[in-house]
Amino acid sequence: MIHGAVMTTAVRVLAVARPTFDTEAAERLRAAAIATLADCTVVTEVRGGSALVMTPADVAAAMAEQPVSMPEVRDVLLCASFCDATPAVALFTGAESGFTGAESGFTGAESPPGSALPPVILWSFPEPGAPGERLLLNSLCGANLAAHALRQRGRQVRHVHGDPADRRVQAELAAALSDTSSTAPPVRGTSGPVDLIAGADALGHLSGQRIGLVGDAPPGFTPCEEPPASVTAMFGLSIDHLDLPTLFERIASVPSDRRDREHARALAEQPSLAAVPQGEALTVAGTTVALADYLTERGCDALALRCWPDFAVDLGACPCSALSRLADRGTPTACERDVLGSLTLLTLAALGAGDAHIVDTVEFEVDPSGSGGLIRVWHCGSAATALAAEPQSATQWLHCNRRLGVAGNFALRTGPVILVRFDCDPEPVDGAPNHPEHGGAGHGGAGHGGAGHGGAGSIEVAPRLRLLLAAGESVPADNRFQGTTATIRVPDPKGLVDLLITGGFPHHTVLAWRDVRPGLRGLAQLLGIPVIDLDTSPHPGIDPA
Known about the structure:
The radius of gyration is 22 Å and the shape is globular. By secondary structure, it is of the alpha/beta class. Helices cover about 30% and strands about 20% of the residues. Helix 2 runs parallel beside helix 3 and helix 9 packs across helix 10.
């Protein structure tokens, strides 16, 4: 039983999962979480949450079963496993159940749809699997992704993480349910050295570069939506578009001798590839050739690829190792068609950061002594093998969920690291909503002019960018999850994770092993982009860049 809270409230629950994860474990967590909510002294009634929501039909049923969000009822999202943001946006922002995130259009609006409602409580759960297993739930990343979408549409969020039976978690849940503040918790950070010369040099290097954008953003992946052209243009970058059917035609037309030579090279460099079914390995070899040809023909310097579900469903293979091989050849690659992730990768490369990799934050551990702890960042196997802790034995294997080749399976390099991300700020600027669905005022810094692609009659302005910086040390550890994992020591892992979620930051950050933060701050200052140095130390303040 939870004691000490005075507010009482009804809660409306959405329990989400995805069939490619451990749905039995997800169902156990759903039932336990519902029981904990029902036993919470600040809760008068629990509505919904009686079944896992995993399909569009489930979303429609949940919307039909439960009324719209209301100020007097608290919304709770149980991230029983990973799920995209579609169900949360549909139920908690009033969007239609067919929302995919790709049709936001950056159109003008008077106010965010969720701005008058209390925060949504996002409840994520620890990973139950043993070291070396796949991510059985990936719950924390799902909460991160949902938070980004909700914050971009005006809903504030709060975060609770842990097992429903844990008394500490129960107390945090009661506190979150009692918090009806309409503002986000403060983002703490510190300022650091600024290198304007390095920043200017990097902008000069970026000018004229091009990102190859293949396919649409996956449904419900709001961090991967394409911003207005003015956002990339402020860096001097342009976008080249290629649809997935055309790419698949290119893959099918790769001559067999070129495909076989690429497969032979990959096998020679990574002998573990021999254990992957040959048909899948050959498909990925053809994908590598087709993507390399496309990048060369179109003069692209980076690639953002929609990698799922289309490759697994339509081609019977996963392109993770194709992205890895292109990254080993010097082309920054982003999975899930993450445009601003690609922009972040290119910016790091322009500053001399060397190889970098897009990651999800999937787990954290707090040191019982109170002296910091660990976060684990991961992705399903597209890292350059040069980033492996032991590059000569960087295993190539099957995708952890789809069980199709080819994906890397190795621990990432150790040493001091930084986590970096450019993102659209969800907070209003000068009274105007700043999230993509509603346009929003530009920041006013250099290069923030130009038209977006808003709807007819709207004022076409770019959303304000922000830059997230964090640092830690990647420590020696076995590969915690199938795919590629880094275990990073940070001063306050829970604080870092909570700030990522309540701040509405993307589920993707970019991990690099060379500290180029002074140049990043300098570049941001030249472009008028606010910098959030997120070291989670107890010193308030945000570097205004």
